[in-house]
User: Fold these one by one.
Assistant:
Number 1:
Amino acid sequence: MKQANFRYAPVLPFRANPITMGRHIHLIKQLFNNNMTRRLLIAGNWKMNLTLSASLELADGLKQAASSVADVDIAVCPPSIYVQPVAASLKGSNIGVGAQNIYFEKEGAFTGEISAAMLKDVGCQYVILGHSERRNILGESSELVNLKTHAALVAGLTPIVCVGELLKEREAGTTEQVVRRQFDGSFSGISAEDMKKCVIAYEPVWAIGTGKVATPDQAEEVHAAIRKMIEKNYNKEVADVVRIQYGGSVNDKNAKEILAKPNVDGALVGGASLKVELFMGIVRPV
Ligand code: PGA
């Protein structure tokens, strides 16, 4: 867990309120982080949007706008058909590319599916797994997400595994149980070394695409609980390095406060990732 690193206290009089430091929030957070290893990861989930030319235009705009960003990891996750051209256009830049789904088998008669190795082959680095739209619209279970998480790791992709409760589950006070069930199911059988390579995205379903963002405190509460789950299933060393992103109506206005929370290590962004200025406003919140 992140705690103030008092070694820096004499030269950081603003340490009590990193938010006031505006643009330097990412650096300050790293200074505050005991282990100093959790870089923020801001990832754009383009979902089923854009055309090929619009994807390339967005990728190009981001490449230019983000060229000087050195302290934050950035990724975009286009629809699978655009992963290859977007990865080619972002090659050599500081923006990684992710997919939104994979199938868990290596190859074979699985009509319509794409393997982790195929995505890796065309320059993909990340894959979003178990997004609530796949869990709720396409009926993906945590067992399936688990098979995909294993497959992603075998192929060398970084899984971004999504967890999050429905509105009725939050209202019933079962948020932590729901997230714990998804966490245990999705990461079953994942070794400690592999767990360190995974990213978790906490996305309350009621906040996705609704404009209804969780408050920074609501996000922090669940993020801290997830970090405890990692510590319980693995150990503190693993818990300290796994990045936990928040997702659900993150935009350039609310990002700064959410990202300032000690257990929030980035954002998974839907709607606001489709415009250069909005996405950059989350990478560099002012
Ligand atoms: P949103 O989507 O930012 O549009 O709410 C987030 C997500 O689904 O990953």
Number 2:
Amino acid sequence: MRWSRFYIPTLKEAPSDAEVVSHKLLTRAGMVRKLTSGIYTYMPLGLRSISKAANIVRQEMDKAGANEVSMPMVQPADLWQESGRWDFYGPELLRIKDRHQRDYCLGPTHEEVITDVVRGEVRSYRQLPVNLYQIQTKFRDEIRPRFGLMRGREFIMKDAYSFDKDQAGLDASYQAMYDAYMAIFSRMALNFRPVEADSGSIGGSFSHEFMVLAETGEDTVVVCQACSYAANIERAEVLCTGDECDGLDTPVEEVSTPGKCTVEDVAAFLDVPQAAIIKTLIFVADGEPVAALVRGDRELNDVKLKNLLHADVLEMATPEQVQKWTEAPVGFAGPVGLKIARIYADNELRLATDWVVGANKGDTHLRHVSLKRDVKLSGFADLRLITEEDVCPKCGGAISLTRGIEVGHVFKLGTKYSEAMNCKYVDEQGKEQTMIMGCYGIGVSRVVASCIEQNHDKDGIKFPPPIAPFEALVLNLDIRTDDVCAKVDEIYELLKSQGVDVLVDDREERPGVKFKDADLIGIPMQLVVGGKGLARGIIEVKDRRTGEKSELPVEGFAEAFA
Ligand code: ATP
Ligand code: MG
Ligand code: MG
Ligand code: MG
């Protein structure tokens, strides 16, 4: 590929709304252009990176026995009504009407559609297991799209869905996907780790997230060095902290609860905008909110540090239990129920041991939270978020908190969708049974952004070869000199013949401009060919990632690359 004929509109300045480095560099390197909030055009260079990531995903999914399909992006409301999610999904679901006033949505995920496909086709246990996947555009009307490709409204996801005849089958399908994800993110040369996670609004009982470790990550990951336990702090239970009820002897005051508070109360209590509140568990004393466990966005996390408490959670209540205890009105989804073991304040154990339950509406809109059981609390005035120092884990290892970007998520769904949508098969005994499902997502466009978060310097991107748009860049410093051009062509052909993905900078630009752009777009190997070098019989080679420069003799060049 020749740069003069390949459209790479690099920029000196980053857009003013770009907060994180990947957003700045993706734009400056001419890889993406914003159309409107959270919606981007993938430019030629950006699309190449995304395609490289997608191909790694595709190869590993195929290897794991999944089959590629492509499902429609527009989905009829009926299916979502059948699964029960039409009312529960909340405003992230973009709803549209056709000319006959029929309801549709733009797919944020495809459980309903795939279940509809499989229930119409798969009848017998002999046809199971089935695992179908696609790499496709998703739409989620995110409350705060930001960080460029990291949290878009329109983005590319790989989503896979497994159907099994029994729990053992699901376990095997889940493990195969988990292993495939390990292979995928390793091949992409990302610094990542799998962590235990909540199942969120997709539902289901068991899940792992794959986190790319980066300061700009929106998630907090709790890691125990000694026992290799790692979890999203949303699930944070910090489960490896030891004795279940150490705190029971601590004197506590009885505080009577139940109370109800509105999102306005919570916002006022925390002194944050209402829109920032996503998921909250409020502790109420004497009718007043006294502390809150909040999952908000980034700014709110900082606020949370001032206000909050951290509780060690022993056990999650089932959604059914919570629904019953809170008497949450119909339409409430995502109930939370936590068995609190300990609450810390000021390094001191201030404790509660009882069920604390709440319910919130939808995924993003909190209407109210009610506490049904009495909670024993004391000294909440200065409650705050737990820090690394607060924990002395039972297993003897140190706990650390680190930031992560969720690039993948694997769920055991069980029969949530197959039950609601009547997705059945006939077993060996001729009896009708419900299929058992799993679902598995990877944010393909987010992967490229996360890769840049981990691989950059002040001059630009430092792509690892697997998701670099090209593997090598040949810089022609003297496009008007015939022997330089001839040498460039020779190198270009040689690399191509060896299967190297190569771009030649043959633009009419000064060397300074070429060097700057080369560092900005971050292609791993730079080969510099110029009249001065050729006169000395050398080509300069730079490894963009290490900055290491070396000289290769022109003569032995072909052999060096053989
Ligand atoms: P998040 O917690 O970041 O909102 P999620 O848990 O809602 O993500 P899933 O439903 O698990 O996302 O979707 C599977 C994958 O799709 C995620 O692991 C993530 O990599 C990617 N993804 C989700 N939302 C976005 C988005 N708005 N922009 C880009 N990628 C996304
Ligand atoms: Mg989300
Ligand atoms: Mg998530
Ligand atoms: Mg997720």
